[in-house]
Amino acid sequence: MASAICALCGRQAESEDLPLTWATSVENGRKLNYCDVCARENVRGIEGKLDPIYW
Ligand SMILES: [Zn+2]
User: Fold this and answer.
1) pLDDT single digits (tens) 1-55
2) SS3 category, 36
3) pLDDT attached to residue 29
4) How far is CA 35 from the centre of its chain?
5) How far apart are CA 32 and CA 52, in angstroms?
6) Are 42 and 8 contacting, i.e. CB atoms less than 8 angstroms apart?
7) How far apart are CA 21 and CA 41, in angstroms?
8) How far is residue 6's CA from residue 38's CA, in Å, rounded to a whole number?
9) Beta-carbon neighbour count of residue 14 at 10 Å?
10) What is the per-residue pLDDT for 47?
11) Which of 9, 10, 17, 43 is the most buried (most CB within 10 A)?
């Protein structure tokens, strides 16, 4: 199983499992991963339903 790679900055997760701080988004049937930094910056664009307090 390959490590998760951020779809925006190309950063690779240190573990095979997706870190809890990372976010996933399914677009056009493809599962995309976003690292903690990109997820925070793009959280509104990725999933508007996420609770801002969580971040
Ligand atoms: Zn990133």
Assistant:
1) 578 899 999 999 888 888 889 988 888 898 889 999 998 887 666 555 555 555 5
2) helix
3) 92
4) 5
5) 20
6) yes
7) 13
8) 8
9) 9
10) 57
11) 43
SS (H, E, C) 37-54: HHHHHHHHHHCCCCCHHH
Rounded to the nearest angstrom, the distance between the alpha carbon of 9 and the centre of ligand 1 is 4
User: Side chain identity at 45, as an amino acid letter?
Assistant: G
Residues with CB under 5 A from ligand 1 (ion): 6, 8-9, 11, 35, 38
Rg, C-alpha atoms of the chain: 11
Structure tokens at 41: 């910056």
Structural tokens at position 29: 């049937």
- Distance (angstroms) between ligand 1 centre and the Cα of 8 equals 5
Which pLDDT belongs to residue 43? 66
